[in-house]
Amino acid sequence: MPLGFAAVTDGQNRGFGVAAGLDPEVARPLAERCAELGYDSMWSNDHPGAKGLDTLAEFGGAAPALDLGVAVIALDRTPPEAIAADIERLGLDPSRLWLGVGAGFSEKPLTRMRESLPELREKLPGVRLVLAAMGPKMCALAGAEFDGVFFNWMTPEFAAGARAKVKAGAGEADRPAPPVFGYVRTAVGPDAAERLAKEESFYRDLHAGYRNHFDRLGEPEGTVGVAAADASNAQQQLAAYTALDTIVIRGLASAKVDPMVAVAEAAAP
Questions:
Q1: Which terminus of the chain has a lower count of CB atoms within 10 Å, N or C?
Q2: Across the 269 residues of the chain, what is the mean pLDDT of every consecutive 10-residue run?
């Protein structure tokens, strides 16, 4: 059965996210500063070169009051039993985790995620399971069966439409809609537009799912996210993401303490 959603309040929250493998000497002070700034959670992605859960362990030790989220672990690369082993190895508290999962390069992603859920529940008791969703059918599945949904590379308007599909899926399952999280790539400073464009260009052709998603978005390249001259402009752009219960600021900056903290400060709740 899905877990309760009490950890997300009625007001909008903000988390801060990074790429997995961040140097612990950067991760720990970053998490400490984010806790001071009022973020409620720290997030990492997961990729073949580094495990997001390892990065979360560094965040968790430095900021014990914050929730921890990974978005997302691809199940075609890391099966549920391996995820469970990593959680145990790292001593992570399951009740602090928002564990995002996705289909990766699976040929039938919707079927893969629907059929994987029972095993995820069995292998990961007490962990809140968050489904990566971009298309309408995946959004509906998240609403019907998961503890949360995670959006990626969406404009505020597209996120609002996707949220409606999550709500519809929950309604068909006769359950409350789960909380909606989402990465908002955020760069601040004179090179902000360049950083956002570089990050986006990598994902636009990563696989068919992303290609289809960006086609549906129909937005010019390098415009999906926040590229801001300063903190005031960043806050103005982030305020448009009202469809998200938790905006996860995906900081686009050099992987060093000062640049990452600067983005966290500019985008702080």
A1: N
A2: 46 96 98 98 97 98 98 97 98 98 92 97 98 96 98 97 98 98 98 96 88 92 96 98 98 98 98
Identify the burial level of 231 via C-beta atoms within 10 angstroms of its C-beta, where 0-12 means exposed, 13-18 middle and 19 or more buried: middle
| Residue type (1 letter), 260 | M
Write out the DSSP string of 75-100.
Answer: TTTS-HHHHHHHHHHHT--GGGEEEE
- Separation CA 186–CA 263 (nearest Å): 7
Instruction: Decide if 143 contacts 167 (C-beta within 8 A).
Output: yes
* CA-angle at 21, arms to 45 and 9, nearest 5°: 40
> Which pTM was predicted?
0.94
Domains and CATH numbers, the chain: 13-266 (3.20.20.30)
**How long, in residues, is the chain?**
269
Q: What is the pLDDT of residue 9?
A: 40
d(CA 22, CA 90): 16
